[in-house]
Amino acid sequence: MKIEQIYTGCIAHAAYYLENNGEAAIFDPLREVQPYIDKATKDNATIKYIFETHFHADFVSGHLDLAKKTGAQIVYGPTAQPNFDAIIATDGQEFKIGNYTVRAIHTPGHTLESTCYLLLDENENMHGIITGDTLFIGDVGRPDLAQKLVSDLTQEKLASMLYDSLRNKIMPLPDDLIVYPNHGAGSACGKNMSKETTDTLGNQKKVNYALRADMTKEEFITELLDGLGAPPAYFPQNVLMNIQGYDSLDTVMAKANSPLSPDEFKTLANQSEALLLDVRHESEFVKEHIPGSIFIGLQGNFAPWVGALIMDVQQPILLIAPEGKEKETITRLSRVGFDNCLGYLEGGLTSWKAAGFETDSVVSITAEQFAAEKDQTRLTIVDARKPGEFSAEHVDGAINIPLDFVNSQLAEVPTENDFYLHCAGGYRSVIMASILKARGYHNIINVEKGMSGIRNTNTVLTNFVCPSTQN
Questions:
Q1: Where is the Rhodanese domain (predicted)?
Q2: 8 Å CB contact between 215 and 33
């Protein structure tokens, strides 16, 4: 069977391209749709269907643009109510892609409309199943997203539905069936996903905690909800965009891909109350940046951190980006619904300084300097990593303020004296430093390379079981 997984690591997303006998289908496409069109053109194929496993929360799908550009029909599972033309498949309904068959299997639980797509080859043999967020490799989808949009739903009700969907619809299928999920490790749509992006159903029955044969529904619900942190704030906003529609990426790009002189940039920043987003490397931001700008570097988990920390997808944004990376940045912002980019600083920080405008910096030291200073005196240390990372190992005496929660835990940020800030490798601590500096905290000393550097010094490390209130 000709099926290709198209994996985008920065948001841990998998789309799928299925082609046979001059017809093609795309499953869960990203916002930028030209690569799918190019694949079909190369195969002399027509894209016939765009299958959506559910209304996605962690990214804005490309279904509308792809349908407009190709004439393909959008397909959702039962109970879906989009604000645009789409086929609402019945449970068990089949669709032909050349000589292949795609069978819709309604699997509510992650969301009410969640649907998996069973793939049958030209001989009607079962080959694989595209599971969306119903079944991951090593995990299953979180059941607490649809309740944000449907008031009488609870995560317990959805978890109960998911248990039934897995036991009654997925687990009875053949063990040699290939599982093709929508996400891999790093996605916030689950909590225990593997780095592997495909597996056989039979192996998942052996190793996936949620598929234990002797698991009761009560045990499933308890284990699924245990340790499930709050979803990022942008998730419900992305769901609504996927249901209601959105501007074409071409329109977004035409507006955002606009070079601005330093004077134009500064004037627009003052007039629009735009957020100044600096996406360069953290080492560059630390040395010099525009005062008040927020750092979220392209080289890290850029889009998920934008969504988690900026909160409102309507927020106007002005970019400071490496030369030649402006279009990439705008595209990656659009993947998570941030379409209100007003333009970028032409010439970057070089042109800003040439115009005579001031810059700021972050005090930053090496891990070796940090260890030497800690040997001499008791330091105030803030660890920006997640609670689980902090529990496993941290600097003796450090306090944990996870970057995810910095906006809600500002009261815990030290104010009287300088404090030392670190994360795992140096990326998150600079993000946090930029947010705090923009809010008026200037008593920050960043520790370069974070724990990866600190471990190579003589700094005393310890373990600690975090209280549940920090989860």
A1: 270-361, 375-463
A2: no
How far is the CA of 61 from the CAs of 26, 78, 85, 429, in angstroms?
A: 11, 19, 15, 31
DSSP-derived secondary structure letter, 433: H
Phi, psi of 320 (to 5 degrees): -120, 105
- How many Å apart are CA 23 and CA 99, to the nearest integer? 9
Rg (CA), the chain: 24
At residue 187, the pLDDT reads 85
Concatenated DSSP letters for 153-204? --HHHHHHHHHHHIIIIITTS-TTPEEEESB-TT-TT-SS--S---EEHHHH
pLDDT of residue 470: 33
Who has greater pLDDT, 149 or 363?
A: 363
Q: Where do the domains of the chain lie, and which CATH numbers do they carry?
A: 3-237 (3.60.15.10), 247-354 (3.40.250.10), 363-470 (3.40.250.10)
Q: CA dist 414 to 374, 403, 422, Å?
A: 17, 15, 14
Cβ(178)–Cβ(160) under 8 Å?
Answer: no
Nearest 10 degrees: Cα torsion 356, 358, 362, 364: 40
From the list 160, 107, 116, 138, the residue with the least C-alpha distance to 206 is 138
Tens of pLDDT, residues 164-198? 999 999 999 999 999 999 999 888 887 778 889 99
Contacts of 122 (CB under 8 A, 6+ apart): 20, 98, 99, 100
For residue 466, the model assigns a pLDDT of 35
User: What's the CA dihedral at 201, 204, 210, 212 to 10 degrees?
Assistant: 90
> pTM for this one?
0.91
Grouping H, G, I as helix, E, B as strand and the rest as coil, residue 59 is coil
98, 67 in Cβ contact below 8 A? no
pLDDT in tens, 312-333: 999 999 999 999 999 999 999 9
Q: Across-strand partners of 260?
A: 345
